[in-house]
Design a protein that fits this description.
By secondary structure, the protein is an alpha+beta fold. The protein has 30 helices and 32 strands. Strands 24-25-27-28-29-30-31-32 form an 8-stranded mixed barrel, surrounded by 4 helices. A 6-stranded antiparallel beta sheet has the order 8-7-6-11-10-9, sandwiched between helices.
Length: 935
Amino acid sequence: MTIDPANGSGPGADGPESETLRLNRILKIIGRSNRALIYVQNETDLLHGICRIVTEEGGYCLAGVGYAENRDVRTLRLVARAGTEADNIDEAWVGAASIHERSPARAALRSGSSVCLEEDFVAERSRRVIRSCLALPLKDEHDDPFGVLAVYSTEPNAFTSDEIRLLEELAGDLAFGIVAIRTRDAYRLAEAQSRAHLQFLQGLDRVNRAIQEARDPEQMMRNVLDAVISLFGCDCAYLMYPCDPDAASWTVPMERARPGFPGTLELGLEQPMNAEVARTLRLLLGTDGPLCFGPGNPYALPRWRLPDPYGIRSFMGMAIHPKTGRPWQFGIHQCSDRRTWTSAEATLFQEIGRRLADGLTSLLTQRDLRDSETRLRTLVQTIPDLVWLKDPDGAYLRCNPKVERLLDAAEADIVGRTDYDFFERELADAFRAQDLEAMQTGAPSVNEEWLTFADNGYRGLFETVKTPVRDPAGKLIGVLGISRDISARKATERKIEHLAYHDALTGLPNRRLLLDRLQQALAGSARTGNHGALLFVDLDNFKLVNDTCGHETGDRLLLEVAGRLVACVREGDTIARLGGDEFVVMLIDLKESATEAAAQAISVGEKIQAELNRPYAMAGRVHHSSPSIGIALFCGQAESVDELLKQADIAMYQAKAAGRNTVRFFDPQMQATLATRALLEESLRLGIQAGQFVLHYQPQIDAGRGVIGAEALLRWVRPERGVVLPGEFIPLAEETGLIVAIGRWVLEASCARLSAWAGDPRTRDLYLAVNVSARQFRQADFVEQVRGALHGSGAPATRLKLELTESLMLHDVADTIGKMQALREIGIGFSMDDFGTGHSSLAYLARLPLDELKIDQSFVNQLPQAAGDAAVVQTIITLARSLGLAVIAEGVETEAQREFLERHGCPTWQGFLFGRPMELGEFERLLTPLRVGPR
């Protein structure tokens, strides 16, 4: 989005733009800038691109980058600019009122710190007023400023502290990117120099062989000139020397041309030259080093007076000085095209000329080539990389001092030995395989390998180029290796990649990586059906810490907060820093139920709140901070990534509006549900501690005996509400684990009631049925709990009946049977509650030590009219009989239902027809003989 400062909607304008939107613009600047830092390869393009991004995304009227020209004077050179006022950058760069010392750019460069200037300045070309300027120093890896990024606005007070902090981060990233590009360019230059060194050495090696293999001066000249034509790709190479003192004519002892070249001179005969060519040749003889003639070279091409087939368009020549008493001219020329000779070619040509002169001198004076060998060794030793030559069998022929350091041995002790004498076998095998590959393919091979120097233990990553070396006849001489340390380059590449996806201060994922992971989380949620959650965490009053204690303390606080956030979540969750004091926590794989997932999210949010509220000990002082946390749930891909972040952000602002240091959900209904749930959980815990639970009793009736017992049903008597039915609190108790404590109380209270009934003739034969929750039954000490309750109360175990659900008994059949048998041995009976609603099988039923099946009331409600339910009930009754089990029906509310059940073999009932769950006194008054039949 491009904002026109003229209409007052840019940074700092008193418009509807919120602080969040302003910061979002800066975050977009940073996001686009990070992409530019990754993909832009040219320093100039990078600088202009950053300036454009700052003005286009930030809505600033002007942005510029300047480099320090002189570190003592601190003068600045403008290198990039962009914006609607780009033509006025030269004026704005100086500063308000054209006072050089008040230039914010120069002030930032001198101080090494950001400088913000709020002062009107009229741009002469457009007559517009620039009212705000922020100058940000660019620092190298030694923290020394080398340039400035300056941002200008036509609005007063355009830069808030948060914007300044984010733009400082941008300046830091830009400085790092500039240093990284320069490091890369330096590496490429060094790499090119290394290749040039290699070509230089290969060329000299070929010339050396041409010289060494020659038996007479003619053969040497012929071999060297042929090698020169091949190396330089020229049309002709020659040697000449003047015939007379005025050098008006010359003799050509040797000339060689490429195959098919039509023009040649007659060897050995005097060649007349015109005055201009003669002057040129005398100039060559009087100059130390080669001279290049032709387009793009310093010297103009003379007018040759030679046979037409030559048509010389460029040439290079130099004087050589064999021990013959007069200088010779060694030259090459091009007729097929206009050739520009490079400095590298000139250097190689000069060295070849010197070696040729030495070779000729050696043959003429019977000297060996020891001086030439010394120069070659010196050249090899000056290369900063590892350089070596091996024969085809892998034995070292020569090496430079860097290889001596690697192997911790002198060259004399290395030559003739192989890699197997210096490295472990696995590494030596790898080196040998690389050598063989280069020799077999005939082409250079490039490999990366970790090498450890034996002299000092340094270990680094090296890039090794191995090139097969052949003599002029094509015979393989061996392998030339050059290895360069690329550890620093690789570290820079990794740092750039890390910068693209992680926050520079905390090392946490940044917005870009968060968005990627959130997109993956949405896709995963769509597959599994599980919820996820975004927690938007903002530190309350963080600006106060920066203002009062400094940015260094603020950064240390952010680092501590990041560490505490990581400790609050699971390994698969994500913590990201969006910038400033804003963090985002992404939770994945929560429950399928939205309510349960929300409970999990609020639990993590409260844990984070508690952790971030703990004091921070920094620099000898104790600091306090608190978070405002907004939560947004997600499931599937119903919402976009940006929408989810917006929802969490809105929820965070709701938390701040609620007084800060609190947690809020984006969904108001969910927020209310969770608040109610939290209050209920708190009250439930207090109810357990205060003994607010009582038992009610619903009679169980037998057709022939009347009341044979009761089912103990839990009631919660809340002081502010009265009696609360189990349906309101049992699910929460199950979820939170409070059901274990409640179940233990029910068991103990029921045993105490059986003990009291045992002393009364009216009640001593009554059974008491007690529901047992799955979580309670799966406690490892459940059997001991029941025994303890019986022993502590003195209740008769034969009067206690435990009601278990189908799902509970089938969870772990072996464990279930073991516990049931242990309790049955002391006389306790078992009833399968809500039978018919689960997934029991006959195999399991036959194995379980049950006494009774309890027909669920859902099958009884529509009796006898519902044919399907009637069939199910009859089947359950028949099944119970076949297994030798008693059967009881619950939910009996009408006489017709009772008659149907009795007629089909179910003589025991429980339901409102005989009495609702009632308090103890009412139940005991009911124990007079109860008439069974019509009422």
